[in-house]
Structures are given as structure tokens and as C-alpha cells.
Amino acid sequence: MATFYSFLSLPASKRKFGFLLLVFLFISVGADSQCIGGDTPCSALSATVSASSCTNPVNIGLGVGCNSSGGTGGCFYQGGFRDAFVTFTIASATNITISITPSNNRDVMLHLYNGNTGAGCAVTSAQELACMDNFLAGFSETLNYSGLPAGTYYVRVQAYNNNTLNSNSFVCVYGTPAGICVTPPNAGSGGTANICSASGSINLFTYLGGSPTPGGTWTDNMNSGALTGSFLNTNLLSPGVYTFTYTVTAPSCPSSSAVVTVNAGGGGIPTVVCPSDITTTNGTGLCGASVNYSLSIVDDCTSGTCAPSSIPGFVLIGTLNGHTYFRSTTAALWPNANATANSLGGHLATISTAVE
């Protein structure tokens, strides 16, 4: 801001009625000529690559002082639009994410160039590795590049149609090492479900031991046709043994798998076969006698174990839709309760209906 003072006085003959006129002229020097981020690769601001999320934003600004450096005009538009540059260096291959959120309603484009500048500190289309423009004014732009090799790179923020951004527009560069397993997946340990068929839907995930990572995929190894996601419709199973594999993956990590084995029985009503009549001869004066006989009971739970009528430490509540419910007589933390339920051939119940 520059201030100029002008003084006007009247001739001496007029001094009796004279006065002093003070005129203030204010001339503003335009504040939008800033170019916080250099407008050529050689004057680019340096960005520190943070891990996994944006923790080191770089304020670029993008005023009228950011003249075009030439080179390509954008992914979809061509033209020497106003731009600013940021540079970063990575020591090893990295999955890079570059983002910008303009602080005023302007459309911008992001470009990623390799680190070799041309004559006059210009960039060329041959150097451009990737670019992004979502066509939306005022919204953030995000450019992802997987497996970017070690080296120095330039990010060019280009304002479409020579728009200007104010001085609170930030560029972020962050990433994770490529080819390095950061967080290994965990499918947990395998488990066994002993059920009678026609027991409704069960969640196989609850039969996994350990601390499995959710969000994996299930494979129906026996092609039973009864599996949807992690839920198994036991009403569709015939008596037999079925296996289902749970697999979890993570970037640059070996996959992790665990198998749940389902022993499915028939679940029908047991058939009791009574023995034939037994005849015995008593001694004189005896009205009865003790005899031994074998009782044959046939249960169509041919594979697996049907629910018992009692379990030590639990109270039988009842049955519903082929399931038998028990309530423990003592309190326990979830991991211990889950392990106990699995060891007894059951699983923790999730009460989801009023009937239950």
C-alpha cells in the first residue's frame, strides 16, 4: 500500500478567507501478483513425502505472478495456463498420492513429471508421467501413481483458463513403500462347525479363531451353492462334510487363508427301535423279574454332532429354527467366550429378532 499527500493553498490575497485543502490519494499495489509456488521447475517449492496420509502440506498460492512455463496444457485441455510447481524426492519405489484442495472455487489440473528439466527450466509432454482433472471447479484433485521409482519428480498445478488461487491452496504428497508389506493380512485360524442341517443361516466368520481381519473373501470349496458372502444357508445342505476357505489380502503382502469345516447332519427326528418282547421264567412267588435289553436309536445326524441337552456351566434356554440356545452362568470377555463356544461346537449368538 503506497500513500501520497497533496497540499493546495490559496494566494495571499485570499488568505483571509483561505483554507488549507488536504487531499489524500491512496494507490493500492495488487496483492494477487504473488506466486508462492515457483512457476518453473527450477523455482519449485520442496515437498516432504509423508507416509500414508497428508501431514506435510505445501502452500503454493497461484496468483497472476504464476505465469505459464509452457509444456503440455493438461490431460484434456490444451493451453499455456497459469501454473505453479512443487518438487519431491523418494529414495525407493513408492505408491504415491498427490492431492490439492483449492481454497476458492477454481478448477485446477495436476501433472506429474520426471525430474529432468528441459531448456530454460521447462517441462515437456515427454516427461509427463500422469495427470488428473475431474472437471469440477473448487473440488480437490487427487492423482495416484503406483510403484513410482526412486528419484526426483515435479508436480505441476495448473489453473484452468488462467484462473488464480488464493494463498491458502495446499498440495500434499504422501505414499507407502511399493513392494513392501506394511500391514500383513490375518485370516485368523481355522475352525469347525458341527450342525444339523436345516438350521437356518450361520455366519462362518464367527467360527474363525484368533483375530481375523474382516473384509476378506470366502470360497465354497465343495460348490455347495449354500454360501453367500460369509453366510451359509444350512437348509440347502445335504448331510456331509463341507469346507470353506477365508482369504484376506493386502498390498504387496502374501495372502492369508483359513479353513472352516462344517459337519452337517440331517437334523431330523431320531427313530427309536424298540426290542421284541422278552419272556423270562420267575421263581415261585415272584411277580416280576429284571431283564437286560438293547435299545436302538437311529439319528440322521450321520455327520457331526447334534446339540446336547445340557452343558456344564450353561443353562439350556430352548430351541428355535433348528438352533439350540444356552446361556452361561458366569460372565466372560468376548475372546474367551468365543473360544469356549467354538470348543463346544457352537458359536456366540447374535440376537437380532424379538422371537430370539
Describe the structure.
This protein has one helix at 334-343; strands at residues 2-8, 21-27, 45-46, 50-51, 58-59, 83-90, 94-101, 108-114, 128-132, 141-148, 151-159, 170-177, 191-196, 201-203, 217-220, 227-228, 231-233, 240-248, 256-265, 271-273, 296-298, 314-320, 323-328. The protein is an all-beta fold and 356 residues long. Among the domains are: 33-177, Jelly Rolls, CATH 2.60.120; 191-265, Sandwich (Immunoglobulin-like). Strand 22 and strand 23 (323-328) form a beta hairpin. It is rod-shaped, with a radius of gyration of 39 Å.
Please identify the structural class as seen in this structure: mainly beta
Low-confidence runs: 1-34
> Which CATH architecture of the domain at 33-177 would you pick?
Sandwich
- Tell me the number of helical segments per DSSP (H or I, 4 or more residues long): 1
**Count of beta strands:** 23
CATH topology of the domain at 33-177: Jelly Rolls
Question: What pattern of helices and strands is seen along the backbone?
Answer: EEEEEEEEEEEEEEEEEEEEEEEH
Bulk shape: rod-shaped
Quick recap of the structure?
With 356 residues, the protein is an all-beta fold. It has one helix at residues 334-343, and strands at residues 2-8, 21-27, 45-46, 50-51, 58-59, 83-90, 94-101, 108-114, 128-132, 141-148, 151-159, 170-177, 191-196, 201-203, 217-220, 227-228, 231-233, 240-248, 256-265, 271-273, 296-298, 314-320, 323-328. It is built from 1 helix and 23 strands.
